[in-house]
Design a protein that fits this description.
By secondary structure, this protein is α/β, with parallel strands linked by helices. It is built from eleven helices and seven strands. Helix content is 48%, strand content 14%. Helix 1 packs parallel to helix 2, helix 1 crosses helix 9 and helix 4 runs parallel beside helix 6.
Length: 264
């Protein structure tokens, strides 16, 4: 599954799934550009270099098209044309029922989670098409399938990623580009492990695997989708959730679970 000679670009790479994806792609042979709004992304770039691959870094907000253009150009100058794009950057900061979610919070979450992925794809897809090879992996969420109480902006933005993924496939599959979405369940990222124990345990209880997923498990799925072995997988939605989605119907009907996830 060698990615030797390929250049990958991973957003949201300062920590969690993005950082792990950058390291696994590097271990598979890719040179990796890492992007985040957090300057700590420099540590990910250093870890990529320690593996023995070239790395490049850019700090910018994916929701701003001008910043995206400038940042991606910087990565291109350092590493060359982008072959693999991992759209992982996202926020889940706005927790409130629909009636109490502000317009500003709604707009911000869609701007980062959905428009950010669009901005990144728009910046690299034509170059991929010109070379007749490209891999785009969009990180959605299992919440895109069943909705999430008190997280309407997050669920809607991650559902939008699925439509974006399919449309890229329809428009660019003939150009040698694949575009697929992965849908993580609850993964043991720093954000998740910092959750109150009762919330985390409630989520684990509704996951048939009865555990959190590991960032490495998600990263290895990303690396597979970036490889030639996945060349005929296109426009797909791949849950990586330990079976969590199978309990969404039961979750939505259980008042005690809804209350467990409620926020002020």
């Amino acid at each position: 599954m060698s990615l030797e000679g390929k250049v990958a670009l991973v957003t949201g790479a300062a920590r969690g799934i993005g950082r792990e994806a950058a390291l696994v792609l590097a271990a598979e042979g890719a040179d990796v550009g890492v992007v985040d709004i957090l300057p700590e992304v420099e540590a990910t770039a250093a870890a990529v270099a320690k593996i023995g691959r070239r790395s490049g870094t850019a700090v910018f907000d994916v929701s701003d098209p001008a910043q995206v253009h400038e940042g991606v150009e910087r990565i291109r100058r350092e590493l060359g044309p982008i072959d693999i794009l991992v759209n992982n950057a996202g926020i889940v900061n706005n927790v409130a029922p629909i009636a109490r979610m502000s317009h500003e919070a709604w707009q911000r979450e869609l701007a980062v989670n959905l428009s950010g992925a669009f901005n990144m794809i728009k910046e690299v897809v034509e170059s991929m098409a010109a070379r007749k090879w490209g891999r785009i992996i969009n990180v959605s969420s299992v919440g895109a399938l069943g909705g999430l109480h008190n997280q309407v902006a997050y669920a809607a933005s991650k559902a939008g990623i699925l439509g974006l993924t399919k449309t890229v496939t329809l428009e660019y599959a003939r150009e040698g580009i694949t575009c697929n979405a992965i849908l993580p369940g609850l993964i043991a990222t720093p954000l998740v492990t910092a959750m109150p124990a009762e919330i985390r345990e409630g989520a684990v209880a509704m996951t048939p695997a009865r555990r959190l997923g590991e960032t490495a498990e998600v990263a290895h799925l990303i690396a597979f989708l970036a490889s030639d072995r996945a060349g005929f997988l296109n426009g797909t939605e791949i849950p990586i959730d330990g079976g969590m989605r199978l309990n969404f119907g039961a979750l939505g009907s259980r008042r005690e679970v809804r209350e467990t996830w409620r926020r002020p």
